[in-house]
Design goal:
The chain is of the alpha/beta class. The protein has a single domain, classed as Rossmann fold (3-Layer(aba) Sandwich), CATH 3.40.50. 40% of the residues lie in helices and 17% in strands. The protein contains 12 helices and 14 strands. The protein has a 7-stranded parallel beta sheet with strand order 3-2-1-4-5-6-11, sandwiched between helices. Helix 1 packs across helix 8. The two termini are 15 Å apart. The structure holds uridine-diphosphate-N-acetylglucosamine. The site of uridine-diphosphate-N-acetylglucosamine has 19 residues, from helix 7 and strand 8.
Length: 354
């Protein structure tokens, strides 16, 4: 089976490529390296000992995108590519609407033209907005609170319409909770380009001495210790969820949304404390004002993914902390200073030959 992976060099994309290659799938990976580095794909190769085809393509470039479809047999698509910083989406909404929506439209048009109707889409728990209760199940009311979230929600709706127009489509919408951790090898992980927006990469950079202290956004939420509660999920569990959703798309048609979370919530201070006890590194922190738009408590009911995909998260908070730290410790500057072999800059050089 040949799978097209968009955004395959990113955090979740690269971990999913590892699982797909290990499971015997053939990959065609595309990425524009806007928020990722070629080195992550070298590491995927190193980890799996498998080769795959790569195109450095901006998904908004229709002609280049069509070339990928013309030159390859593709059985299904896993679509990760997209911009994902909430704050940036508020200050530059048009960038988010253009990039995330147009790229998906171009992708789906090409899939339709080349009769490829199996799609796994990278959605987010952000589509639940501020949930009225927890745990959150897939039938909860959907509401986006910012342009980034709205792009995810609009795409989910577009994909529903696509299926309504043609019942041969088979689409999984994967609503991720809070992905953290890294591959246990320490070779691939999350590599934020600037100061991290999300909690775990911020913690690991404080631990590494790159950032001075953690700011804890609010301590008056109605939670165990007043700090926000989230459902942190190990990125390898998440990657495996994509494999299982992909298999499901080959078995039946329809549009199905799945929550990928552990079902267990941890507060900010509980995560800090787990990180400190697993790694032995102290994390200095300071309580500041709550971040606008943050929910107090958010965790998943992932029963549907278990019943319909046979998927359940297996890795606990200790493994998440240990693996996040191993990645940060082994790669203090992310992928930047660890390039092995020739630095690959263009597609022709990068194309991995079998
Ligand atoms: C954020 C996004 C969400 C996106 C997800 C992707 C916002 C409002 N939400 O989710 O749309 O899908 O990332 O991973 O940005 N925290 C701190 N200090 C920090 C960073 C975070 O205290 O420096 C707290 C937050 O208030 C929250 C928890 O840590 O309670 C987790 O935050 P974060 O990692 O940013 O994830 P979300 O806000 O859940």
């Amino acid at each position: 089976m040949f799978i097209l992976v968009t955004g395959g060099a990113g955090f979740i994309g690269s971990h999913t490529c590892v699982e797909l290659l290990n499971a015997g799938y053939e990959l065609i990976v595309i990425d524009n390296f806007l928020n990722s580095k070629p080195e992550s794909l070298h590491r995927v190769q190193e980890l799996t000992g498998k080769s795959f085809k790569f195109y450095q393509v901006d998904m908004l470039e229709e002609v280049q995108m069509e070339r990928v479809f013309l030159e390859n047999r593709i059985d299904a698509v896993i679509h990760f590519a997209g911009l994902k910083a909430v704050g940036e989406s508020v200050s530059n909404p048009l960038l988010y609407y253009k990039n995330n929506l147009m790229s998906t439209f171009i992708l789906c048009q090409l899939m339709q033209k080349y009769n490829i109707k199996h799609l796994v889409f990278s959605s987010s728990a952000t589509v639940y907005g501020l949930p009225e209760s927890v745990p959150i199940s897939e039938d909860f009311h959907l509401k986006a609170l910012n342009p980034y979230g709205r792009t995810k929600l609009i795409i989910e709706q577009v994909l529903q319409d696509l299926y309504s127009s043609d019942p041969e489509w088979s689409i999984s919408l994967l609503r991720y909770f809070n992905p953290i951790g890294a591959h246990e090898s320490g070779l691939i992980g999350e590599d934020p380009q600037n100061i991290p927006n999300n909690l775990m990469p911020y913690i690991t950079q404080v631990a590494a001495g790159k950032l001075h202290e953690l700011e804890v956004f609010g301590s008056c939420y109605p939670t165990v210790d007043g700090t926000g509660v989230r459902d942190y999920i190990h990125v390898v569990d998440l990657a495996i969820g994509h494999l299982m959703a992909l298999e499901k798309t080959f078995k039946s048609s329809g549009v199905h949304a799945y929550n990928l979370g552990t079902g267990q919530g941890y507060s900010v201070l509980e995560l800090v404390s787990a990180f400190e006890s697993v790694t032995g590194v102290r994390i200095p922190y300071r309580i500041t004002n709550p971040r606008s738009g943050d929910a107090a408590i958010c965790y998943a009911d992932s029963t549907k993914a278990w019943k319909e995909l046979g998927w359940k998260a297996k890795k606990g908070i200790e493994e998440m902390c240990a693996d996040s730290w191993r990645w940060q410790y082994n790669n203090p500057d992310g992928y930047i200073n660890k390039v092995k072999g020739p630095h690959i800059t263009n597609e022709e050089e990068f194309l991995v030959q079998k």
